[in-house]
Amino acid sequence: MHLAVAEVSKRYPSGILALDGVSLDVAPGMFGLLGPNGAGKSTLMRVIATLLRPDAGSVRFGDVDVLADPMAMRATLGYLPQEFGLYPNIPVGETLEHFVALKGYPHPARRRDVADALLQRTNLTEQRNTLVGSLSGGMRQRLGVAIALAGRPRLLILDEPTAGLDPAERHRLYDLLAEVGDGVTVILSTHIVEDVRELCTALALIDRGRVVLRGDPEALVRELRGRLWRRPLEPGEADSVRARHRVISTRRVAGRPVAHIVADHPPDAASTLLEPTLEDAYFLRVGAGADRER
Prior knowledge:
Helix content is 34%, strand content 28%. The two termini are 36 Å apart. The protein folds into three domains: 1-76 and 154-216, Rossmann fold; 88-149, no CATH class; 221-293, no CATH class. The protein is globular and about 70 Å long. α3 crosses α4, α4 (108-121) crosses α5 (137-149) and α5 runs parallel beside α6 (167-180). The strands form three sheets. Strands 6-7-8-3-9-10 form a six-stranded mixed beta sheet, with helices on both faces. A four-stranded antiparallel beta sheet has the order 2-1-4-5. 39% of the residues are buried. The protein has helices spanning 41-48, 70-74, 92-102, 108-121, 137-149, 167-180, 193-199, 217-222, 238-244, 278-285, 288-293, and strands at residues 3-11, 17-26, 29-34, 56-61, 64-65, 77-80, 155-159, 185-190, 202-207, 210-215, 228-232, 247-253, 256-262, 272-273. The chain is an alpha/beta fold.
């Protein structure tokens, strides 16, 4: 089932315009919503999850008008918010069974069977009797995914699921999410480029409440191929290089600053051609690179 978001806008009472005419078409599979902190990602996720009503626009999931019939949407939705609270002194299995019951499994035996299947799917079977407060960050996120999967949702929203995880835990979660994405529409909202590169076949980049880029991650990287240059920076040279060239990012390699420059021809003799990544496509349209373009 497709998710169609059309011209959605939301301004908070403080005056902040969080969403400014956002439109998306999301097909089944893993879809990445990428953007910096404060770009409007979480606001959009809350609108789709029926937790926040927009000022304008429409949201449809298949035949469901999400804004007119939020209960129909909630019946088919799994949602893992960026921050979720669980009682720390309750075991993992009991916690999950509670959420399974809320999804329409009142019979204790059936509820336990469903919870056991979800624990196995998220590799938490050995932690069934562990108190939630004793879980590692990665285990806690996997429990959050298990809760979101209760009720067999057709749309799964994951808001910053890998934030704060170490590399090993992040990759364990990648393996789980890749499996979850089969046959389900999954929106992965994140500011971590690696999340989208590893998992998603389509993405949208949101910045300052607007969608500034959408497409296939590989195609977006190809657009930069042959146009991205690596330029080592000498001490005190950064400002002059930025003034002369289109610098989209500056980073350190082995402690030395290096500029990434977009140009159709070699910027200067110190520049060498560089194979682009999705992170470069991201920086081209967000932050300093985008400001130069605007």
